[in-house]
Amino acid sequence: MTPLLWLGALGAWTFVVVFSIDGWTRPGYHPVRHPVSALALGPRGRLQTANFVLCGAAITAGAVAVAGALDSGVLALAIGVFGLALIASGVFPMDPMRGYPPGTPDGTPTEVSGRHELHDRAGAVVFLSLPVAAVIAAFAVPDLVWKWYSGLTGIVTLALFFAFGQAWEKDSPRTGLLQRATIVVGWLWLGLLFAYAAR
């Protein structure tokens, strides 16, 4: 099962690398303001869609091996839910808004599509299941350092997620930055957890 754990780690870290490079090089896209999900729109949108689906699938596959490696079916389930929700985020992309793709009105539409609503629900599961997984890991992983690291990750990612939510509601110019902070902290922990379980 070790290859599945390394696949999960690769999925978590690749997701961050891909959206980081794509976001900084995408014409008309502003990483500090726009969310990662907006990268699934526009001429290069398929790249981020694939990033959601393939990395989500890799993480879900890795979750299967976590149950045996760390002797915690509950932790494996939480990570699996996270991976599946990441896939759903790619299958149901958000609507164009807030100036992206270029030419889109700079604001939030009063009505959104059903696809966008499904994306929002999948995103909520993504950003809530990860802190839950981290808290579960704080109890399930025997190593003391990992207990503290996991518990702290759960607290920080949850706090950052709520900060991101408030920024999104206010259309803050730092919305994308807050979301990226949440993702980097959480996905880094997840990749390292897979690597720890593999060893």
Automatic annotation (TrEMBL):
Enumerate the UniProt keywords alphabetically. Answer: Membrane, Transmembrane, Transmembrane helix
> Which region is the signal sequence?
none
Q: Which domain of life is it from?
A: Bacteria
Which Pfam families does the record associate with it?
DUF998 (PF06197)
TM region(s), chain numbering: 49-67, 74-92, 122-141, 148-168, 180-198
Coiled coil region boundaries = none
Designated name of the protein? DUF998 domain-containing protein
Q: Which organism encodes this protein?
A: Nocardiopsis lambiniae
